[in-house]
Amino acid sequence: MRRPSPLPQSPVAPRGATTAGEPVSRAAVDDVVQDAVAPAGPKPRAAASGADEHPTAGPTRPEAPRDAPARGGDLGTVIPLSAETRAARLDASSDGADADTGMDPEVGFREVWKASRARRKALRAEVRRFTVRQRRRRAVWLGAAASLVLLALGTVGAAYSPLFGVEKISVVGAQQLDAGEVADALSGQLGTPLPLVDESAVKKALVAFPLIETYALEARPPHELVVRLVERTPVGIIETRAGYTLVDAAGVALSTTATPSAGVPLLTITGGVKSDAFAAAGQVMRSLPDDIRAQVTGVSASTPDDVTLTLGGTNTQVVWGNAERSADKALRLQKIMAARPPADVSTYDVSSPEAVVVR
Is there a domain that residue 294 lies in? Predict the structure, then answer.
């Protein structure tokens, strides 16, 4: 059985030798300096060493000087190095070690700040490059919004300027009233910008016309103000101490004359214009068709449930009753009067629309 051969041993590095990338120790630097200062020649062997007590068998090979560079194939030639060359190599090896460890003793705060600033600048440039479409879209939206805001501000500013001042007042819906008189009453609004027309001043001027029930203002740029009127509908006249007063269904006095007006029915209401009987009579008169209302010469009521109408020269009575279902009653009365004229009838009783009584 064969004995295993011994493993090869790694060669022992000579004293002072370093590997690439390994930092140089202080002891190695001292050895190099001593070798540079010591005189040339073989070094004396140590007096007492472990090698003398235990000499190795066989001839010993002379030790090559430390300062001899390693050359492949030419081991016999030795080139001595000067102290300056050794120091330069030590500095180069120290610089290489510092470069390998990433430490530079000469880097200051200013260089670090410049490098950080350059890094931030490069990062911002990359962010801008990747968000260019988003920023472009945002700029478009902001531009559109700014345009709309400027347009709105310009429109509002122009509307409140004298460029849109009132130069013409038109009155629409006046039948019993004189439209020119109403326009003259509102002449104080001429020259006022349309959005700044004083509605309270307009109301104060129109109160002087009792026939106006409601009104509405309409601006027609650039210079026209339109006043739309709804006139009151007179339902009859009431005899008072001052004469005969024309009133509407709400009891508002429209005008007063000394003698009764022709074609206007006379109202005989118990309790006056503030009573429920007057309210029922006014509602009945407003529900009549125009052709029947023109034939009414008198209206009487003592309660809200006994409204009675008197028709033209025949003195035909129309018993209406209360104001409920006035539209149906007016429609049935119109049909009955077409079939049987008032000249042949003394009384129409439409208090019950389903059962009209004619006498």
Answer: yes
Choosing from 98, 131, 158, the residue where a domain stops is 158
Beta strands in the chain (DSSP E): 168-172, 212-220, 224-231, 234-240, 243-248, 253-257, 266-269, 296-301, 307-311, 317-321, 347-349, 357-358
Which residue segment(s) compose the domain that 151 sits in?
107-158
CA distance 84 to 315: 151
Contact of 217 with 197, CB cutoff 8 Å:
yes
N-to-C CA span, the chain: 159
- CB count within 10 Å of CB 277 equals 20
Same domain, 335 and 346: yes
Quick check: pTM over 0.85? no
For 332-346, write each residue's pLDDT tens digit: 999 999 999 998 899
Helix (H/G/I), strand (E/B), else coil: 231? strand
Within this chain, do residues 347 and 264 fall inside the same structural domain, yes or no?
yes
Q: Token match 């003592």: residue?
A: 302
Q: What is the CATH number of the domain that holds 319?
A: 3.40.50.11690
Query: Tens digits of per-residue pLDDT, 39-55?
Result: 444 444 444 344 344 44
CA distances to 38, 160, 168, 185, 192 from 220, rounded to whole Å, are 117, 14, 10, 19, 13
